[in-house]
DNA sequence: AGAAACAATGTAAACGTTTACATTTTAAAC
DNA sequence: GTTTAAAATGTAAACGTTTACATTGTTTCT
């Protein structure tokens, strides 16, 4: 029942090498021979076994994707971008999410050490020395997505959190003339969060608001964090004119808190977020936020990774591309 | 540089068979020998090559997942359920989404025909004859998720759309005594949508509301579809007391329309949805809807698929499991 | 027509495992 | 201390390709 290259070769009256060449699109085969082999193959329903091919070629046509967690639309977009690009180029995608550091490491080792994939796209919140060591030792190329930590000597695609935060805060100042702008920050050890905070500070500074126009409370990127952060800011003696939530999820929490306290957005206080998650367009008023090109991050990572796989020289070079964000204007900042 | 089983065997002073046995956890190896091999392996950083292993064993420890599209949180949840379960059992997941029918077929053929995966989880909106033929011909088992069409003789996990719809409509009738209940339906060719409509009709019938308590307009599962469907229903001479949206996305559209028309939910009209998407909990009031156990669908599919892979006999048996939904009460139906 | 150059095909050795089967070692029984 | 059975290890043949290298077939040139 099983049909392999030998059966095809036999039936077609050629050697297995010729059959192999036909399926590798070699130009060393005469057209008539090619046709004959292809015809027999179709008859026998022959498809070259990719595992055997991988073993022989030492290539799998597969990229591994390691994600910190599969929950959240953020990751869905990433996978979407990756899958689409990989499919276009006829590659396969092996995914693996994880819920703990150890898990990321394990998966990475499994992917990198073995011949299961030809390259890896890694999205890790924090690149530590152990991860770097694995990357260094492996023959297989790796591309980082939105990675923080010691990412030197690696290929790294990230989002311009600083610029995005700067821009949206500047919008609050320039277009709306708000004087006191609060912020609910993200986790202190999160690089995205840190850059967003820096962008915020920079904008305030630029417009001379850093002295007494600044009000910052900690947050954790969660809905509850946003809820409490908002309440904390609002309970201050001197209330802020506007609040920059370090991400949209927290902005959702802020909307809930505002609703509860009967505070109107943007009439009583303006609110902006970051990420442009799907949900944000359904908030009332629509949340003004910063769009992050997530799927693009994924597809760019794939393109670069395939480049590294094809041209080993690239592997040695470090490479960083920072994708710019764009402002998404909703009603929550006070714009019509 | 490259370290293979031969190097390890040599260095450990044993044969490659013994090394292989150590890594296959065979109990034919004495503990001291095992220790020695393991020690050397660690020293040399040896990991058995999974490709070679796959070729020899004719098993890849990988399952393929074919999805109609990677967009939408629905699919993210599916992947999440699948990945988590697969990881638990030490399997890998090869994903592939697609945007057209042809694409699903292609991927399926590639997955099933080749030795790249040991089994496939397929989520296709519609199982047609071509797909069935592929399933029939393949040695590799396949599990369907939420599939419509001719799914006999297959393993199939689906959601109880009928019961879910029936239950939520019954809730509207029993708990709130609404007399006229409208519905915005899903796509006519979508099996989920059809079952939901049937559940709706059945509930109305049960309580004798089918005569003049029914009002149905077509929809398409999109936000816009819900928006227009809601407006259509509301513009009727005799207005419905409550509306059942065939899915949550359309309910979101209905909220927008209601806001626009200054119609209060649930004071002026009650509204319920289906799916319990993430977003629905952030609507005001929270949407009453039907929770669909999506991740569970994924993990159950994996468990069953691995069962089929291990026990070939299972493959022949058709199997259907219909996962029950549960009601999620929010404020939109009129409940406190 | 024969030599030379080139195109097309074939042969056989990788690729790195697993696993029947053969062989050796160890333990048990007498 | 043999003999015997059982346990541990080794040998070698798969698994299904790719691809140097060898061989054969076909032009082209003189």
Helix and strand layout, with pairings?
Two copies of one chain form a homodimer.
Chain A: H1 5-12, H2 16-23, H3 31-44, H4 50-57, E1 62-67, H5 73-88, E2 92-97, H6 101-113, E3 119-122, H7 129-137, E4 142-145, E5 155-159, H8 161-174, E6 181-184, H9 191-206, E7 214-217, H10 223-234, E8 242-245, H11 248-261, E9 270-272, E10 289-291, H12 294-310, H13 312-316, E11 319-323, E12 326-328
Parallel strand pairs in A: 1-2, 1-3, 3-4, 4-5, 5-11, 6-7, 6-8, 8-9
Antiparallel strand pairs in A: 10-12
Helix pairs in contact in A: 1-2, 1-3, 5-12, 6-7, 8-9, 10-11
The structure holds a DNA duplex (30 and 30 nucleotides).
What CATH architecture of the largest domain in chain A do you see? Answer: 3-Layer(aba) Sandwich
Please count the helical segments of chain A: 13
Largest sheet of chain A: 6 strands, parallel
CATH homologous superfamily grouping of the largest domain in chain A:
Response regulator
**Largest interface, and how many residues on either side?**
A-B, 45 and 42 residues
Rounded radius of gyration of chain A (Å): 26 Å
**In CATH's first tier, which class of the largest domain in chain A applies?**
Alpha Beta
Strand content of chain A: 15-25%
Oligomeric grouping of the chains: homodimer
């Amino acid at each position: 029942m099983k049909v392999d290259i030998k059966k095809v070769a036999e039936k077609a009256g050629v050697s297995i090498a010729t059959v192999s060449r036909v399926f590798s699109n070699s130009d060393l085969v005469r057209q008539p021979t090619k046709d004959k082999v292809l015809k027999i193959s179709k008859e026998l329903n022959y498809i070259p076994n990719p595992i055997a091919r991988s073993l022989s070629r030492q290539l799998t046509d597969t990229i591994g994707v390691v994600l910190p967690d599969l929950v959240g639309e953020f990751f869905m977009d990433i996978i979407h971008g990756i899958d689409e690009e990989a499919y276009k180029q006829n590659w396969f995608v092996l995914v693996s999410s994880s819920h703990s550091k150890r898990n990321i490491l394990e998966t990475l080792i499994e992917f990198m050490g073995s011949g299961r994939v030809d390259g890896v796209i890694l999205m890790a919140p924090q690149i530590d020395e152990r991860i770097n060591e694995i990357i260094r030792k492996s023959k297989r190329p790796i591309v980082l997505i939105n990675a923080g930590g010691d990412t030197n000597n690696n290929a790294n695609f990230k989002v311009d959190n600083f610029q995005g935060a700067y821009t949206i805060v500047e919008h609050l100042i320039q277009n709306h003339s708000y004087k006191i702008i609060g912020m609910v920050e993200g986790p202190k050890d999160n690089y995205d969060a840190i850059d967003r905070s820096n962008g915020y500070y920079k904008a305030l500074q630029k417009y001379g608001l850093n002295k007494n126009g600044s009000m910052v409370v900690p947050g954790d990127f969660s809905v509850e964090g946003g809820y409490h952060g908002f309440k904390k800011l609002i309970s201050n003696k001197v209330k802020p004119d506007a609040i920059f939530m370090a991400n949209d999820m927290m902005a959702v929490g802020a909307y809930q808190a505002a609703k509860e306290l009967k505070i109107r957005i943007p009439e009583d206080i303006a609110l902006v977020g970051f990420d442009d998650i799907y949900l944000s367009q359904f908030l009332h008023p629509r949340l003004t936020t910063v769009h992050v090109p997530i799927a693009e991050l994924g597809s760019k990572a794939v393109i670069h990774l395939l480049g590294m796989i094809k041209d080993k020289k690239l592997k040695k070079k470090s490479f960083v591309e920072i994708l710019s964000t764009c402002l998404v204007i909703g009603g929550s900042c006070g714009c019509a």
